[in-house]
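Many introductory courses stop at the sequence. We go one step further.
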Amino acid sequence: MESRNICELGIKKEVNVEKVKISYFEKGEGDVIILLNGWPQTSYMWRKITTPLSKKFRIIAVDLPGLGNSENVSSYDTKNIATLLNTFRNILKIEKFHLIGHDIGSWIASTYFIYFNKYLKSLTVLDAGIPGLIPEEVFSLKNSNKIWQFYFHKIDEIPEFLIKGKEKEYISWYFNKKSFIKNSITNEDIEEYYSKYKQENVMRNSFKYYKAFEKSAEQNKIAINKFPTKILAIGGEFAMAENVGIAMEKLSYNVTTKVIKNCAHYIAEEQPNELVEILINWL
């Protein structure tokens, strides 16, 4: 029997996208919002905001390829994943929609904005170091406590070797270290994430997003012209803060930047009520 938290996400569904099973949850009616999860998370990360948003919107919370209940893909560069997302949109017969991403979900959402902008009503990015767009100083040594995983996950074989059998300890460290409100992600929540990341090859798949970071950055750097489509950039006070907005100003003339106080990286879990209020007012 599914937990109450998972039920909050809506009805679980699956669709084959270019022979890849993509798992997602759906809830509500109205204009479509597609949600893309971060790392080390799944669509479960949206459990606190889907119900209030579903009162006004049709919410589709996707497990990124290779993560959660979605199948592996051949390449994890953001253009390839964004292309799969566009095929997913087409299969579901969605003409235009609002796209919201967190962390690596924001990487993909940003690339989707560049290549498939005509299908978007808006883009929202939550606390992410986006390939090719985030200010270079974010990756300085003095900021290593926030960004060291970009380098570690990119190394061949070593992260998989060191973490095997300690997946729970590893992701637990992240949720504790990179959150400001420590009880916002409970032991039950960590167990849910662990149940997915301990599955064969899921942790390895998740690292492939980081291994493709440079390729994704080059794909994003083609964005020499800005779009008028509106973007909402949200950073946690103790995480990326205003750097998300600085990155998004490379893509659009119409960027709104918000920094959520008393919040670190996991915005949708640490400050869900404020996030929902911001989203509904802005959308």
